[in-house]
Amino acid sequence: MDEYTKNIVYYMNNTKFTGTLEEYTQRIYYKSKICGDTVILFVVLKDSIIDDLKYELNGCALNTASFEVFCEYLIGKPIVEIKNLNSDMISEKLGVHPKGKDHCITLALDVFGMIEAEHL
Ligand code: FES
Predict the structure, then answer these.
(1) Which residues are 18's β-sheet partners?
(2) How confident is the model at residue 44 (pLDDT cuts 50, 70, 90)?
(3) Sign of the CA dihedral running 96, 9, 19, 31
(4) pLDDT at 3
(5) Is 102 in the pocket of ligand 1 (CB under 6 A)?
(6) 66 touches ligand 1 (CB under 6 Å)
(7) Which atom of ligand 1 is least distant from the CA of 62?
(8) Shortest CA distance to 3 belongs to which of 101, 103, 107, 104?
(9) Nearest residue CA, atom 4 of ligand 1?
(10) Ligand 1 centroid to 47 CA: how many Å?
């Protein structure tokens, strides 16, 4: 288990934010131009606080782990915290920065950036 660390496997097997929300303030669909993976992110904002997040993803393990790490970080925080998301946060949490897989992390950053674009 070199490139896929125990932490990536942990996040894959213990997802907390997968699924859908019937009521949300924003729904974002995104398809990667690089790998074709897709995601739908559901966002609940209350008074500029990220109250809830869920995602449906057809993507790889690193992408799933990235969404889990970002969702975990953002829940309960002001929307401006989206500006603090970065790939180093993923590398630190997962204990690795898999070579040639930057787009898997970038996909998650792009999707969360779309929340920011609409609300900041
Ligand atoms: Fe598509 Fe990782 S291979 S997001």
Answers:
(1) 55
(2) very high
(3) positive
(4) 54
(5) no
(6) no
(7) 2
(8) 101
(9) 104
(10) 33
